[in-house]
Amino acid sequence: MQLSDAGQSWPYFLRNKTGSAAAYAFMLFPKHLNLDLSIYIQVIEDIVLFTNLVNDILSWVSLSILLLTQ
Question: If you count Cβ atoms within 10 Å of the first and of the last residue's Cβ in the chain, which end, N or C, has fewer?
């Protein structure tokens, strides 16, 4: 797919729709705490972004180590 200038965030959109970072973000707030959803829903997207970016960094490091040891 050719990415146009107007669609610079398309890869992040696709990753958010197909990844599991949102599920992990919601798991940070257990049901037994009985928190109001309106309290933490506002930070979910930030947690998803952080999780995805940390995953990218860790994946890059592990791939680099793997390539250096071959």
Answer: C
Instruction: Estimate the crossing angle of helix 44-68 against helix 10-18, to 10 degrees.
Output: 90
Looking at residue 54, its amino acid is V
- Extract the tokens encoding 22: 């949102």
Q: Quick check: 44 and 26 in contact, CB under 8 A?
A: yes
Q: 50 near 22, Cβ under 8 Å? A: no
State which residues form the domain around 49: 5-68
Count structural domains, the chain.
Answer: 1
Cα–Cα distance measured from residue 40 to residue 48, given in angstroms and rounded to the nearest whole number:
13
pLDDT at position 39 over 80: yes
Query: What pLDDT digit, counting tens, does each position of 48-61 carry?
Result: 999 999 999 999 99
